[in-house]
Amino acid sequence: MGATMETVEQLPVSVRKLWRWGGAFTGLFFGLITAAFTIGAASALELGIAGYVAAGVLVLAVAAVPVWWAGVRYRNWGWQLTPLWVEAKHGVLGRHRVIIPRNRIQTVTTNSGPVDRMLDLETITVHTAGVGAPNLTIPHLATATVQQIRTELGKGVDE
What we know:
- By secondary structure, this protein is an alpha+beta fold.
- It folds into two domains: 13-74, no CATH class; 79-154, PH-domain like, CATH 2.30.29.
- 48% of the residues lie in helices and 24% in strands.
- It is built from four helices and six strands.
- The strands form two sheets. The chain has a three-stranded antiparallel sheet, with no helix packed on it. Strands 4-5-6 form a three-stranded antiparallel sheet.
- It is elongated.
- It starts with 12 loop residues before the first helix and ends in a 5-residue tail after the last helix.
């Protein structure tokens, strides 16, 4: 990362793993619920082995979708810092884009939960001046990157 970033940056690769693990737990939860219903239905309808195979395929599909979705979500996240603005883009079905002019930045805050700290990640939020003005949040950046962003955004404040 140079003095300013002119290219759209992606979140760290560890975020994809984090989101996929979250998707795996979500998929496991919904997969177990789906398994209970489909196995019960296959038994009640006396569908035989074909019913249980179909139930198994459905359970695997339900469990796999959140893991796949985490990867799609990761690929659609981007951010950049330029001399004039801070920008974040994300979203799969609905695209969200927030651009904040640097002269409108009021404060910059960071947040990290226990899992973030284990992975050396932080979430940064750029707060803007003005009533109803949007804030920009970039989740799960490397701590070193967050410090560089804070330094870059703080340039010129004391001048």
